[in-house]
Amino acid sequence: MIHQMKLVIHFSFLILFSCTTDKVEKNSLVVDSSNHSIFTLLEDHMGHSMTMITDLDKLLQSKTTEEYQEASLACSHNNKVCFSLDLKVSSRGETRKRYCDFPPLKLNFKKGTLEKIGLNKFDHYKLVTHCNEDEDSETVLLKEYLVYKMFNKLTSNSLNAGLSMIRYEDSENVIPSFQKHAFLIEPIKEFCFREELNYIDNPNLKLSSIHAEQYKLFTLFQYMIGNTDWNLSKRHNTKLFQKEVGSPIPVPYDFDYSGLVNAPYALPHPQLPIKHVRERLFQNRAKNLDLTNTIQLFTQHKDSLFELCNQFGFLDESNRADMVAYLDSFYKIIEDPEIVQKKLIDKM
Length: 348
Description:
This protein has 348 residues and is an alpha+beta fold. It has helices at residues 38-42, 56-61, 95-99, 111-116, 135-154, 188-195, 212-225, 292-300, 302-310, 317-334, 337-345, and strands spanning 7-13, 48-54, 69-77, 80-91, 105-109, 124-128, 161-170, 178-185, 198-200, 238-242, 249-252. It is globular, with a radius of gyration of 21 Å.
């Protein structure tokens, strides 16, 4: 039955612009600054409603081929239309696209339209969706969103994420409407613009040239969250960036296979010496490893990371407590020099 309808999606955000008219023509917008993008308008806020209209049956049927299809996106607040934009949407992803009933999405806006309404021309966005209808899918999504926010706490060299509540309604009134969370991931081009970095797409780059401190931060963060689903050589779930002068910086993404998220479908690679994603494995390959400064950075942010979990009201108390306990087990390791030497340094 779900394959026989079109889709109307309402996003809830608190967007940083004013809505001044009862009706705004399609592809128009009122903003308080020209230095905005779709992402910065929607990032991390609640309150406005967003509506996306597209053919759901076509979207689900073509999720393996990732074919773009026409859609429209509109924002409203207090019954006033803020903007209405035409765009294209498609499914995306690898494992999630195969595993999920509802796939993650790609949003493709029109650069000319964005420029016309005063927004930066960042036009491609990834939307992480709820995957399946069960409660576990909601929990997995919210936990993964928090992992992005944790890395934001540790370094600005990290991709931002913007959480929203999405209300799905059947435009043909075939099935009842329902709500699920989702989050947008900051586009690579927009991240480069924000941090004044260049994206490195060079498969022949020597990994020995990577920024030493950022590499230690990267690997210890992956260890903290219990994530082994990455590979620098193959650029799996990581991107490399560089200032005009300086060493390449690794930036991770996609954390659903981490122990901290603990998705029901997550399994460690069979070649790794762990049996479950909750088991940590330190994958730093540096010689003469000195983690002193990196551990100090994590220690400085311990309270803020715990607070991020404890105050995240979208997760129930048991899931917040589980995340805190998993983080606490990491800090018990790095706060003991002997355990650091045994579990991390001597393992190299």
